[in-house]
Structures are given as structure tokens and as C-alpha cells.
Amino acid sequence: MVHFVGAGPGAPDLITLRGRRLLETADVIIYAGSLVNPELLSFAKEGCRIHNSACMNLEQVIEVMKQAEAEGKTTVRLHTGDPSVYGAIREQIDLLKRDGISYDVCPGVSSFFGAAASLACEYTLPEVSQSIIITRMSGRTTVPDGESVRSFAAHQATMILFLSVGMIEDVVRELTEGGYQPDTPAAVVYKATWEDEKIVRASLDELAEKVQAAGIKKTALIIVGKVLGDDYALSKLYDKHFTTEYRRGV
Ligand code: SAH
Questions:
Q1: Which residue among 115, 116, 187, 238 has the highest number of C-beta atoms inside a 10 angstrom radius?
Q2: In sequence order, which ranges of the chain are alpha helices (DSSP H)?
Q3: Distance, CA 66 to ligand 1 centroid (Å)?
Q4: CA atoms within 13 A on the CB side of 137
């Protein structure tokens, strides 16, 4: 059996209870060493075989899983954040299916939730934005036509860019030319929830300069939108005049 497990954004106590239990019982752990906090490996039991997938290709990862399966062992494949977001789990799952190896997925706290917590922000504010666009700049992995940052910018919704801080100047240009005003509030969160986390807040037109000055080149999220500003409407849910299934308005 192979368990795909979300490691959470960084702080080791942000893995789920289920994820931790799976780590504690695994015979083999394959972790994404470029981003997963190695402190999580201290949950592994004595004698657990540990592999760092940063130095492995897809076939090598699957080979380790197949070998473990042949020995009747349990494998945890530990991915950063939540495995469903830029996790490259589908290609692994399809090869496991081909080989008749069973698997399941344990969710994790994605880094974009970790970053929201670090910023103490709400991505969905009434009358400001009720939608979150999660995307990335086209890089060595391309983004399909029709999903350009520039086209999404027209919505003026809350936008979160993964895997893009190394191209911060291009990001800002695409966002601005796409429709965000240059004074739109933005933030870059580097290593959200890690001990060396850094937060840069700036309006869009000053963001690139500040991010470069902070020396942030990777492992960061770019968050853009008026939800990072000061204006919003109060929620209906907690409005004293609003009646819900649970509470009668006054
Ligand atoms: N599955 C992961 C994302 C993997 S893609 C998740 O749910 O978070 C890797 C990218 O995620 C990084 O380039 C960076 O943009 C972002 N990332 C991962 N961990 C991060 C963290 N702790 N703080 C900020 N960004 C992070």
C-alpha cells in the first residue's frame, strides 16, 4: 500500500494527525526533499527506509514503491503542502494503478493556507473578492493557453501565484497589464510557517523591488488583491439583523 501524504507548509506540527500516524507506521518514506521539512522524518519508526525524491526521477520513485510492495511493506510518499496542488501525484498514481498497487491520499495544509495564516488575512472578503485564483507563471512547465496570468488579472479577484517568485518582474507586469491597478496591495510570503519565514508587503508597483531587496528567489507565494487592503463589508453571517437556520436576527 502507498499513502500519498500532505506534509503541510513547513512547520512540523502542521501535518494532520492522520498524516503523522501514517509516517509513524511507514516502512518506507519517500519525501520531497526540496520542500518538505526534514524534521517530519523524526516521526519515522526505527528501521524505516527513507528516500529523498529530490534526487530521483519518476521511474526510480515507482521502483522504490514496487520493491516495498513486493516485500509487503507500507510506503508513505510525502509531498509538501497538499498533494493535489502542483504535487505531480497523478503520474505516480497512474503507474501504481498499472502495476496493481493500492494507494490512498491524505490531505495536507497547502502553503497558500499557511501564508494566509502568516498574513492573518481572509482571502474572501464580502464586496471585495469572493474568489481565489490559484495559478503560476508559465515556466519550464508551461501553462495552457487561456490560463495566462494576464487574462486572470482581468477578474481582479484574490490571486495566489505558486512557483513564480523567481520571475517577479514579469509577474507584476502581467498582473498590471491584465487589469490590477498599480496600487493594488500584494504580499510575498517566503517559507510560510517555517522558522525563517519572511513576509514582504507592498503595492504591486513596489513589490518586485522589495522582493529582490529581501533576496527572495524561491519557495514563496505571491498574493495579490484588495483583500490585503483595508476596505470591505461586514459579513451577513454575523450581522445581528440577519436570520439564519441557527439564529434569529433582531
Ligand atoms: N503542494 C504544495 C505546492 C508545491 S509547488 C502546496 O500545497 O503548497 C512548490 C511551490 O509551492 C513553491 O515554489 C512555492 O511557490 C510554494 N510553496 C511551498 N511551500 C511553501 C511555503 N512554506 N511558503 C511559501 N510558498 C511555498
A1: 115
A2: 17-25, 58-70, 90-98, 111-119, 149-153, 168-178, 204-213
A3: 28
A4: 16
What is the position in ligand 1's atom list of the atom closest to the CA of 162?
A: 15
Q: Are 216 and 207 in contact (CB under 8 A)?
A: no
8-state DSSP, 81: B
Set of cell numbers at residue 92: 505516480
Tell me if residue 133 falls in helix, strand or coil.
strand
The amino acid that residue 68 corresponds to is A
Q: For residue 151, report the distance from its CA to the centre of ligand 1, in Å.
A: 23
Q: For 47-92, what is each residue's pLDDT tens digit?
A: 999 999 999 999 999 999 999 999 999 999 999 999 999 999 999 9
User: Which amino acid is located at 117 in the chain?
Assistant: A
* Torsion-angle region of 74 (φ positive above 0: left; ψ -120 to 50: alpha; else: beta): beta
What spacing in Å lies between the alpha carbon of 203 and ligand 1's midpoint? 22
Which residue among 162, 193, 211, 222 has the greatest number of ligand 1 atoms within 8 angstroms of its CB, and so is best to mutate? 162
In angstroms, what is the span from residue 234 Cα to ligand 1's centroid? 31
Nearest CA owner, ligand 1 atom 24: 220
Closest CA to 233 of 108, 114, 128: 128
Judge contact between 76 and 105, C-beta under 8 A: no
Q: Which of 72, 28, 21 is nearest to 47 (CA)?
A: 28
Write the CB contacts of 64 (distance below 8 Å, at least 6 apart in sequence).
28, 30, 51, 56, 75
159-170 pLDDT, tens digit per residue, is 999 999 999 999
